[in-house]
Amino acid sequence: MRYGVSRTLAGGALAAGAAALLAACGGSGNTAATCGDAKRAYERYIGGVRAVSASDAAQWRRPTEELAANLSGLADKASDDGLKKALKDQADRLRAAAGTVSTGDVSQLNATLTAAPDELGTACR
Questions:
Q1: pLDDT tens digit string along 7-54?
Q2: What is the number of domains present in the chain?
Q3: Could you tell me the pTM of the whole model?
Q4: Residue 98 CA, distance from chain mean position
Q5: What DSSP letter does each residue of the chain carry, written as one string?
Q6: Tell me, what's the pLDDT at 81?
Q7: What is the pLDDT of residue 59?
Q8: Angle ∠(35,8,57) on CA atoms, nearest 5
Q9: Which residues form the signal peptide (predicted)?
Q10: Closest CA to 87 of 66, 111, 70
Q11: Contacts of 73 (CB under 8 A, 6+ apart)
C-alpha cells in the first residue's frame, strides 16, 4: 500500500475512533480523566500527522513516539488495571510501529491505530 494512502486510512480511522473513545467512559478512580487525556493525546497525534508529509516516512517517527510516550505516562497514572494494560499495550505497539514507519512500512502503524478505538474504548467503559 502506498504511504499516502495508508496515512489517510490511519488518520480517518483514528478521527472516527477518537470521537467515540469516551462515549461511555466511566469506571472507578481516575478512569474518566485518564480516558479524556488519552483522547486528547490521540487528537494531538492526528493533528500532528496531518501536517507531516506523506512522502517523508522519517517524519512520522517522532509524532508516533510522542504518542507512545504520552500513553505510557497515562498508563503509569491509571488506577484501573484494565485501562493501565490497554494503554501500555497500545504504547508498546506504537513504539514498535514507529521504528518500521520510519523506513516506509506503515502496516504495523495502521493495524495499531485501527485497533486503538475499540481497545481503549472498551477499557474506558
A1: 444 554 554 444 445 444 555 678 889 999 999 999 899 888 888 877
A2: 1
A3: 0.80
A4: 11
A5: --HHHHHHHHHHHHHHHHHHTTTT---STTHHHHHHHHHHHHHHHHHHHHTS-TT-THHHHHHHHHHHHHHHHHHHH-SSHHHHHHHHHHHHHHHHHHHHHTTT--HHHHHHHHHHHHHHHHHT-
A6: 93
A7: 84
A8: 95
A9: 1-23
A10: 70
A11: none
Residue tagged 499516502 (cell numbers) = 4
Identity of the residue numbered 87: L
Rounded Cα–Cα distance for residues 83 and 93 (Å): 15
Place of cell 500532528: 48
Q: Is 53 left (phi over 0), alpha (psi -120 to 50) or beta?
A: beta
The Cα 45–Cα 31 span in angstroms is: 21
The 10s digit of each residue's pLDDT in 49-79 is 888 877 777 788 889 999 999 999 999 999 9
Residue 19 domain boundaries: 3-123
